[in-house]
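ugh ok fine here u go
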Amino acid sequence: MTTDALLVIDMQRGFDDPRWGARNNPEAEANGLRVLAHWRARRWPVVIVRHDSVDAASPLQPGQPGNELKPGFEPLAGELVVGKCVNSALIGTALEAWLRDRDIGAVTIFGITSDQCVSTTARMASNLGFRTTVVEDACACFGQTTTTGQPLSAEALHVAHMTTLHTEFARVVTTNEVTGSITTLAELRNRVPPPSELVRNKVLDHLDVHARAFIALSPMVIVGTHGATGHADVSPRGDAPGFVAVHGDRCLVIPERPGNRLADSLRNVIETGEIGMLFLIPGIRDALRVNGRAWVTTSPEVLVPLAVEGKPPAMAIVVHVRESYLHCARWSYRSKLWEPASWPASESLPSLAQMLVDQVGMPHLRRDELDTMLREMYATELY
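structure:
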């Protein structure tokens, strides 16, 4: 095998403990998850390394919450988990034998900390003859004090170790280099030619007669929003065709019917006022995209006309349209969404009740009771 094995070093909760001091690179975890997803998507070999400290005061000691892996770094089936109690993942573990048994001659490394376990493992891997790569922006470390009592910042320590590794022991790269990520518009346009004149001209700043007719026939809109922290959410909204009210050519209103009460879309709209919508009509292969500024209203004048079964919604999202354009049908031809012959059998997935029972881990929750509750909710609580 010629593919590198990915060594994920000590991505553990214990490193969030303030006792370690100031840390550099707060994006290390996010970048590490990108690299890990890149490996897993290709089914390349992954090794999750965990530090099992022998120091009784360490948050990384086995049995302590800090010994657990950070979210997203938990091993999947078939991935090797290596527990170590020294800096190198290649000392006192089965890692080297595991790599050689599989004829793996190269490793890519990231994790915590840059100056200790990452650096030590990378140096030793290189000395043992493995072609070694370190993903520098998926690593982090903590500030130290020099032998003369002077503070040494985490970033200075990180840079020094990455420099030494690159000079002598490893190829030091970024997450974007490893994953082949496109990060600039110039790179994007090198791969995606500019749109045609027709496509550029189809983007309107209002709802024309065709867009309004599309919305009037649509029983479903998929709503995309994002919050102040960048948290994104996509949520389906469905009702009788035309349930999204259109007022003129630049305003529409989405009623907020009873739901799961997470209120993700509403929260995001309140925080940023940004919204994107995708309108669908069963059997119609094209779609309509609408983007704009949004706010949440409780105005009776807006809500009462949206009543169903005599029940107006408690609130609604009002949208001032900024963009509107029809989306061609290539997506529906590819997905065969409206072709019943391509639909999976209903038994391909467990029931929603069964999946919820499996997911939430509530011992008192029974599938039959949840099935009954869901049926009653659908019958009596749609409005």
